[in-house]
């Protein structure tokens, strides 16, 4: 999905209403404060504890004297909550959180002139509307990728062609029902996955953007998710719990991240992933700095470190994502020279990247805002 000026305009309007008043951006990076506190997705910041080959923290700490403290978060809503509470310097925010953080004045503009490697960032991401508002950057792109359909290869001898295997009750190729054997993501943004499925399978609804749903379209999407509730064995948000569920709890198909699929494949489990014919939602994550960061110098040092080709390639290899720095696609031993293509480098324009739904539609009329998404999805999960 290509960025739209509408997203940017919406964010500007939100910020204008909030009367944002940020401190002046720094003109230089000073001596490090000794530590940096980061909220991150699981697998995004590794120090070799799981696999000694994947460590992009230790060298940074030795070089800068900035100790890296990481708090993992399983959903964008959790990240927003943690940033609202404060006490963190940086967050690896997806597009369904980033503009909420900007509008809520929880993150500060970033002076990209203080980040020498900024010029190496993929041009498709440099001015992306989920971190750029009125020409001002509120973060540094980190990684991106699709939300894939993970499936058990013992059950599906061929990759499922449609997301219908998790949305519609049916008999799977092994002759058993999918009821209780599929999962869905435990986050309101998953409503967009259902919308994308209906966008392709029910063209009469005239959905053109899974994040911009009119009340009538939204009603149909919610109805699909209410029916799906009877099929779902667990709504996942913890990546490691989902890995265990594929191993031990009989889960055979689910929305997932390449991260879990990589772990399962490395453990020789019969799991693979695909992007079905309806396409996929996805995430383009941005490292953003808290408006009241206590360790801004260490934070700026981390922002520069995060864009090094070695770090970018290693993260992509570990998580199954695509680097924000294209130079990382060549010469990285862990990612290999085919890794970027495997992880979807050329699929950028086919992915509907997460973003926060607002009441203002690009087309005429009004759309259902994220606050309603959150309320209704909680109700579905509670049934």
Verbal overview:
This protein is of the alpha/beta class and 383 residues long. It contains 14 helices and 14 strands. The strands form 3 sheets. Strands 1, 2, 3, 6, 12, 13 and 14 form a 7-stranded mixed sheet that branches. A 5-stranded mixed sheet has the order 9-8-10-7-11, covered by helices on one side. A two-stranded antiparallel ribbon has the order 4-5. Strand 4 and strand 5 form a beta hairpin. The N terminus is likely disordered.
Secondary-structure-based class equals alpha/beta
Number of strands: 14
Distance between the termini: 33 Å
Computed CA radius of gyration, to the nearest angstrom: 20 Å
Low-confidence stretches: 1-21
Pattern of helices and strands: HEHEHEHHEEEEHEHHEHEHEEHHEHEH
Mean pLDDT: 92
Biggest sheet overview:
7 strands, mixed
Number of helices: 14
The dominant shape is globular
């Amino acid at each position: 999905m290509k960025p739209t000026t509408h997203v940017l305009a919406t964010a500007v309007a939100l910020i204008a209403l909030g009367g944002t008043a940020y401190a002046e951006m720094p003109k230089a990076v000073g001596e490090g404060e000794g530590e940096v506190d980061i909220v991150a997705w699981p697998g995004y910041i590794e120090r070799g504890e799981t696999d000694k080959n994947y460590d992009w923290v230790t060298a940074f700490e030795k070089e800068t004297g900035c100790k890296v403290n990481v708090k993992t978060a399983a959903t964008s809503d959790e990240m927003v909550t943690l940033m609202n509470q404060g006490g963190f310097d940086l967050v690896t925010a997806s597009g369904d959180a980033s503009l909420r953080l900007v509008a809520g004045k929880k993150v500060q503009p970033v002076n990209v002139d203080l980040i020498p490697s900024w010029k190496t960032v993929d041009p498709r991401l440099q001015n992306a509307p989920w971190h750029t508002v009125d020409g001002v950057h509120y973060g540094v792109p980190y990684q991106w990728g699709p939300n894939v359909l993970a499936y058990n290869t013992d059950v599906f001898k061929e990759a499922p062609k449609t997301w219908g295997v998790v949305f519609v009750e049916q008999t799977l190729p092994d002759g058993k029902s999918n009821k209780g054997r599929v999962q869905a993501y435990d986050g309101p943004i998953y409503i967009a996955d259902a919308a994308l499925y209906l966008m392709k399978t029910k063209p009469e609804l005239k959905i053109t953007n899974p994040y911009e749903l009119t009340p009538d379209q939204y009603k149909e999407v919610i109805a699909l998710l209410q029916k799906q509730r009877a099929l779902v064995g667990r709504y996942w948000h913890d990546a490691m719990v989902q890995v265990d569920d594929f191993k031990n709890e009989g889960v055979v198909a689910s929305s997932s991240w390449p991260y879990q699929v990589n772990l399962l494949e490395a453990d020789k489990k019969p799991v693979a992933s695909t992007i079905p014919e309806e396409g996929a939602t996805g995430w383009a994550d941005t490292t953003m700095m808290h408006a009241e960061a206590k360790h801004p110098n260490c934070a700026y040092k981390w922002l520069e470190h995060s864009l090094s080709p070695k770090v970018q390639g290693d993260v992509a290899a570990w998580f199954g994502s695509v680097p924000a720095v294209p130079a990382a696609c060549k010469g990285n031993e862990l990612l290999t020279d085919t890794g970027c293509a495997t992880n979807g480098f050329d699929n950028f324009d086919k992915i509907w990247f997460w973003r926060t739904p607002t009441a203002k539609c690009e087309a005429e009329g009004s759309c259902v805002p994220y606050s309603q998404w959150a309320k209704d999805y909680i109700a579905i999960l509670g049934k």
